[in-house]
Design brief:
The complex is a heterodimer of chains A (238) and B (322).
Chain A: E1 6-15, E2 18-28, E3 33-38, H1 44-52, E4 59-64, E5 67-68, H2 74-79, E6 82-85, H3 97-104, H4 108-112, H5 114-124, H6 126-130, H7 141-154, E7 159-163, H8 171-186, E8 190-194, H9 198-204, E9 207-212, E10 215-221, H10 222-227, H11 229-236
Parallel strand pairs in A: 3-8, 3-9, 6-7, 7-8
Antiparallel strand pairs in A: 1-2, 1-4, 4-5, 9-10
Chain B: H1 2-9, H2 26-67, H3 74-92, H4 100-119, H5 127-149, E1 163-165, E2 168-170, H6 172-194, H7 196-206, H8 208-213, H9 218-241, H10 250-265, H11 270-287, H12 296-310
Helix pairs in contact in B: 2-6, 2-9, 2-10, 2-11, 3-4, 3-5, 3-9, 3-10, 4-9, 6-7, 6-9, 7-9, 10-11, 10-12
The chains are: A alpha/beta (238), B mainly alpha (322).
């Protein structure tokens, strides 16, 4: 296998004085879907925040496309192609759909392809095109999540990290969004998925890491993790 | 009056008499007419000056809305704008209106410097911290200004021809100041709505984390927003200097007015600030003929408190969203 596009080595971080991660190491190969699963409070979201630099890494190393990006702020990582769609959508509620998408394409590298990417987003989510002048804050949960994904895609990610895509959505909408992710996977996008809906996540993923108490408890090809009974009972509640 | 007239009229059953002492003559009407005209003129002038108040407040409210910092350097920066235009005018002979350009540029630079030295580390911290740091900068600026220029009054000696309404003369200065304030406020609105930096400022104001995750360097955007807020304060100061005499301490009273305007126009709503400023000016103009001028701040702050109680988001606030 070639060099992973994103490598996280012994990451330690936390909130204030409270350490959450105690040395997490992940490898994300290009063009694959990697999922991070685990119980609530295991450190999944913290791993994403630490990787992005929204939380400052206390120890460890983060390499993106061979470059050490450990201490770069989140915006600089986004500009280099590492993009996080955060939990809870985090849209610009008083801005329109188009303006939200514009903000996704803020970085110089994404601005060049802005209109092409906008059309791509609209073809994935035709609903957004119908409502492009509407304020994001007026949307339903599903539409907001579509816009959050669309805005993330506008940033031209090399690695797209998605935190809790299905949170608060109906099973039908969740299915639809996962079909969209499958399309993106087939187009060759590298995806890191943190997802409470473990079934769907494992079905879509190539490789899975199981976090527990801020450490990697187990890892392996997704279909193997899905069948390991010790993981199922202890950490996935299946 | 009406009662006595009807008593007269009962004699010959005429409602209106073409002659007689109960029909008020022109000379009796004149003071009333002149008073009404004077009141109208005073209110119109209030609107003109109010547009400049609105401009000053837009700087305060921009910073407040974008980074949740109540900028207590605001008054000092209004003062700097006043002395900026004064010095450029007296030392270099630059036209005071042309001097608006360098005053705005210097205000922007000063704002960016103040942001990185005094504001950056306290953004997102408890409000008392930014109140203290900006107040400290305020004291330094005003102290330095007092050393340089003492607290004696200065004025920018420019008089543009205007027009008269009754006894009231509108100088060209007032008209031009209001026009400049409107143009700058309109420019601010276009800037926030259309430009890349303007949208980035709104994005950071709306959700700093999301902005950062979309590749927007939020601290740099905040520094520029602070610079723009200070530039607006300085521009307002420069325009006020063409209207009234001023001292180093004058900025303080415009800072207080800016707070009233901000509350009228909606917290963190720069375009509403212009409407709030005009409303405040209109009120001042309407009250001036009736009361001693020193009562006006008392009334303004009574209004400030009343509006805060009745409309916690301001009179013209956009509907708050989640």
């Amino acid at each position: 296998m070639t060099e992973p596009i994103l490598t996280i080595t012994d990451l330690e971080t936390g909130y204030g004085d409270v350490q959450v991660l105690w040395g997490v190491s992940l490898q994300v190969p290009a063009g694959r879907v990697t999922t991070i699963i685990g119980a609530n409070g295991a450190g999944k979201t913290t791993t994403l925040y630490g990787t992005m630099g929204w939380l400052r890494p206390w120890r460890g190393r983060i390499a993106l496309k061979g470059e050490d990006v450990t201490h770069l702020p989140a915006w600089a990582k986004t500009q280099r192609g590492l993009v996080l769609i955060p939990e809870g959508r985090q849209l610009f509620n008083t801005m329109t759909v188009d303006e939200n998408l514009d903000m996704g394409a803020f970085s110089p590298r994404a601005r060049r392809g802005r209109e092409i990417n906008r059309q791509r987003v609209f073809s994935l989510f035709p609903r957004l095109q119908e409502r492009r002048r509407q304020q994001a804050g007026t949307f339903s949960g599903g539409e907001q999540q579509m816009l959050a994904v669309g805005r993330g895609l506008m940033a031209e990610p090399d690695v797209l990290m998605i935190d809790e895509l299905s949170l608060g959505l109906s099973p039908l909408l969740t299915q639809q969004l996962f079909i969209t992710l499958k399309t993106l996977k087939q187009q060759g996008l590298t995806i890191v998925l943190v997802e409470q809906n473990v079934h769907l996540a494992l079905a879509l993923s190539d490789y899975a890491y199981v976090l527990a108490e801020g450490r990697v408890f187990a890892e392996g090809p997704a279909h193997e993790v899905a069948t390991r009974s010790d993981i199922r009972t202890a950490y996935l509640g299946l | 009056m009406i009662v006595s007239r009807s008593q007269h009229n009962t004699n010959n059953k005429l409602v209106f008499r073409p002659d007689g002492e109960d029909h008020p003559s022109e000379s009796e009407h004149e003071p009333e007419r002149r008073f009404m005209l004077g009141l109208f003129a005073s209110m119109l002038d209030g609107v003109l000056v109010g547009a400049v108040y609105g401009l000053a407040a837009s700087g305060l409210t921009l910073i407040w809305g974008v980074m949740d910092v109540i900028n207590l350097t605001h008054g000092a920066m209004v003062t700097m704008g006043m002395f900026g235009v004064y010095l450029l005018f007296t030392e270099t002979g630059l036209n005071p209106y042309a001097a608006l350009v360098p005053v705005a540029a210097l205000g922007f630079v000063a704002g960016v410097v103040v942001y990185w030295t005094a504001v950056h580390r306290v953004v997102g911290r408890p409000p008392l911290m930014s109140l203290l740091t900006t107040f400290a900068v305020n004291l330094m600026v005003i102290g330095t200004g007092t050393i340089l220029w003492s607290t004696s009054p200065y004025n920018v000696d420019v008089n543009l021809p205007g027009f008269s309404l009754g006894d009231y003369t509108f100088t060209g200065n007032h008209l031009l100041a209001a026009l400049a304030a409107l143009i700058i406020a309109g420019g601010l609105s276009l800037f926030l709505g259309r430009t890349r930096l303007g949208k980035a400022i709104r994005a950071v104001a709306g959700n700093r984390m999301a902005a950062e995750l979309m590749g927007i360097p939020s601290s740099q955007v905040l520094a520029r927003a602070f610079g723009i807020g200070i530039a607006l304060a300085a521009l307002a100061g420069a325009l006020i200097a063409t209207l009234f005499p001023f001292t180093v301490l004058s900025g303080g009273s415009y800072e207080l007015k800016s707070f009233v305007v901000t509350v009228l126009g909606g917290l963190g709503n720069p375009t509403g600030a212009l409407a709030g400023g005009i409303l405040l000016g209109l009120m001042e103009g309407g009250l001036t003929p009736f009361i001693t001028v020193s009562w006006i701040p008392v009334i303004e702050f009574a209004l400030f408190v009343a509006v805060l109680i009745a409309f916690p988001h301001g009179l013209f606030a956009r509907r708050p969203r989640r």
